[in-house]
Design a protein that fits this description.
Elements (H helix, E strand, L loop, with lengths): L1 H6 L11 H17 L3 H13 L8 H24 L1 H20 L4 H29 L3 H32 L4 H4 L1 H15 L13 H24 L4 H21 L9 H5 L1 H31 L4 H6 L2 H18 L6 H18 L8 H28 L7 H38 L4 H41 L10 H8 L3
Helix pairs in contact: 2-6, 2-7, 2-9, 3-7, 4-5, 4-6, 4-10, 4-18, 5-6, 5-9, 6-18, 7-15, 7-17, 10-11, 10-18, 13-16, 13-17, 13-18, 13-19, 15-17, 16-17, 16-19, 18-19
């Protein structure tokens, strides 16, 4: 791209002396946003009992967050470009803490649903600000690799950490602390942001594209909502088809409008770059497989193996450790020596192999021999992938597009996670129902005797079929990364990447 070639001639920017402490602040905020997508999962049964939430409505505790988060990310990224990343970062932290306090004090189902939606809205402002601040704080290629390694580890491991924290807080305190815990985290991060983060004022030329906001955010909301409703209503339901059809129309109109708008919400040159487009698509496909894994393994550990909430959360710790090792000790060390796809492709192949190994699960499988090895493979694969995906997607963008580019990465995560949860859950439940119906004996007495065991076997069969699909999705991600991401390794003297980044600082 011509803009990048011009930028490469610029001098390397001065390094921020507090940049590693700034990374701690950014990492804290990102951890809070990511773990909040899963921390309430384990607490949900307790909240449901206390607030009298019906089975049909309990999904809104999760969906309200992901719906607002995924639907408003592009708007949040453009606001960061317009107002300034540091301002929106602090604003997002304060708002997220306030929404968490409201949710923790909820006295009714509606109050909890509203608080979760408000959390998602503030997360949509906070997340793109965090990622774009990271790209402007670290300009040296080697240091940038380490920083993105830590950030990628948090993005991949935060969901698992959320499950562990949810189990600890629910078991030893109260489900409300799954929300209250965000308040001290946000307070520390906000204080650190005010004192440690540096950012230039917002770019006034980055005007808000109101029609683009309505079309783009409306389309994403309909898409995320449609996939969420497919879990309970089925893919042929009129509501689901109507939402997905509306999403298709709105998003197509959004793309058409972006070619004509004076100040587009998502400048199409961002996604026309094949390396960025490949990174966005790889991220979305990776999250389909990862969120499907979290869904099935949480239920498998608790309902099939009989683990407690805390024990099931701890069972994800080795995978979290593998993600951290893959991101910080492998990807971060190799990214400035090898092309990004040389990390992404092996990462997705490892993840696909791990998911394929999990299809051997039965109702009597042992955690150490049947669950742990595949989860380690998946964690290592995700760690190899997330860091180069984020670094490649955000490299070399114009300063006025930094926020919206970061938002697009986060949108790929959220939409991919929503699709993975809904699509794979629908495959699992449909397969289970058909398998159980085919294997239940006709004799009533015999059915009563073996019905529970057959139901358990049917549920696990549904999981394994869905895991095969998830494995295939990660294979597709490996193909996408291998064919679309063609960027070479940065020069060892750092000139290429440092120059490209200087235009963003």
């Amino acid at each position: 791209m011509s803009a990048t070639r011009t930028d490469e001639q610029a001098p390397q920017p001065t390094q921020d002396v507090h940049r590693w402490w700034a990374l701690v602040v950014i990492a804290l905020a990102q951890l809070m946003v990511v773990l909040d997508a899963t921390i309430v999962n384990i607490a949900l049964p307790s909240a449901q009992r206390e607030l009298g939430i019906s089975d049909g409505n309990r999904q809104w505790v999760i969906t309200a967050y992901t719906l607002a988060f995924g639907g408003l990310l592009l708007l949040g990224g453009r606001i960061a470009d317009y107002v300034g990343r540091k301002r929106t970062f602090v604003f997002g932290l304060i708002g997220f803490a306030a929404a968490s306090a409201i949710g923790g004090a909820a006295s009714s189902a509606g109050m909890l649903f509203g608080a979760r939606a408000l959390q998602g809205a503030f997360a949509a402002v906070l997340a793109p600000s965090a990622l774009s601040l990271l790209t402007t704080t670290f300009t040296d290629p080697k240091e940038r690799g380490k920083a993105f390694g830590i950030y990628g580890a948090i993005a991949g491991g935060g969901a698992a950490i959320g499950l562990i924290m949810g189990g600890v807080l629910t078991e030893y305190l109260d489900w409300r602390w799954c929300l209250y815990v965000n308040i001290p985290i946000a307070a520390i991060a906000a204080l650190g942001a005010v004192t440690l983060l540096h950012d230039r004022p917002g770019h006034r030329e980055a005007r808000l594209d109101v029609p683009g906001v309505l079309l783009g955010c409306g389309g994403l909301v309909c898409l995320v909502y449609g996939f969420s409703e497919a879990e309970s209503h089925g893919w042929s339901d009129g509501l689901v088809l109507g939402l997905l059809g509306t999403a298709a129309v709105l998003l197509a109109s959004f793309v058409w409008w972006q070619t004509r708008a004076r100040n587009p919400l998502l400048p199409l040159h961002i996604i026309r770059d094949r390396n960025r487009a490949g990174s966005f698509l790889t991220m979305a496909l990776a999250m389909i497989g990862l969120f499907g894994l979290f869904l099935f393994m949480t239920f498998y550990l608790q309902t099939i193996l009989g683990y407690s909430p805390l024990k099931s959360g701890v069972a994800f710790l080795p995978m979290t450790a593998a993600i951290i090792i893959g991101s910080t000790q492998i990807s971060a060390r190799l990214l400035h020596h090898v092309p990004p796809r040389m990390l992404m492709v092996p990462g997705m192949l490892l993840g696909s192999a791990g998911l394929a190994l999990l299809t051997r699960l039965t109702v009597h499988s042992d955690y150490t021999s049947h669950v742990l090895p595949p989860m380690l493979l998946i964690g290592l694969g995700m760690g190899l992938t997330f860091m180069p995906v984020m670094a490649t997607a955000t490299q070399g963008v114009r300063p006025q597009d930094s926020g919206v580019t970061s938002a697009t990465v986060n949108t790929a995560q959220q939409v991919g996670g929503s699709i993975g949860t809904s699509l794979l859950n629908t495959i699992a439940t449909t397969t289970s129902s058909h398998w159980i119906a085919a294997h239940l004996p006709a004799d009533p007495a015999e059915r009563r005797r073996v019905g529970r065991e057959i139901a358990r076997e049917g549920v696990v069969h549904g999981y394994t079929v869905a895991l095969w699909w998830a494995s295939g999705v990660l294979l597709l991600a490996a193909v996408v990364a291998g064919t679309l991401v063609t960027r070479q390794a940065p020069k060892h003297d750092g000139e290429g990447e440092a120059g490209a980044l200087s235009g963003m600082a």
